[in-house]
Amino acid sequence: MEWLNGRKSDIEKQVIVLDDIISKANDLEIEWKELLRPANDGEWENNVALYELQKNAV
């Protein structure tokens, strides 16, 4: 019985670690989607074109 209780404790610790990893992955997914939004709506191309115009004007 003692072994079973120890095993349960180990599994509970692993679940806590996995929950933390999943939470961080979800945060990264949100950040990634925010970073990709300009590329998906064409804003990225506009920013690159503006940068090229400014670079060539100098």
Descriptive notes:
There is one protein chain. This protein has helices at residues 2-40, 43-57. It is mostly helical. The longest helix is centred in the middle third of the chain and has 39 residues, at 2-40. The N and C termini lie far apart (77 Å).
For the structure shown, list the relevant keywords.
single chain; 58 residues; mainly alpha; 93% helix; rod-shaped
Summed up, the domain count is 1
The H-and-E topology, N to C, reads as: HH
Class from helix and strand fractions = mainly alpha
Radius of gyration: 24 Å
Mean pLDDT: 85
Described by strand count, sense and barrel closure, the largest sheet is: none
Q: Approximately how much helix is present in the residues? A: over 70%
Say how many strands there are. Answer: 0
The stretches of 5 or more residues where confidence is low (pLDDT under 50) are none
Oligomeric assembly: single chain
Helix count from the secondary structure assignment: 2
Q: Termini distance?
A: 77 Å
Give the percentage of residues in beta strands.
under 5%
* General form: rod-shaped
Concise structural overview:
This protein has 58 residues and is mainly alpha-helical. It has two helices and no strands.
Topology, pairings included?
Elements: H1 2-40, H2 43-57
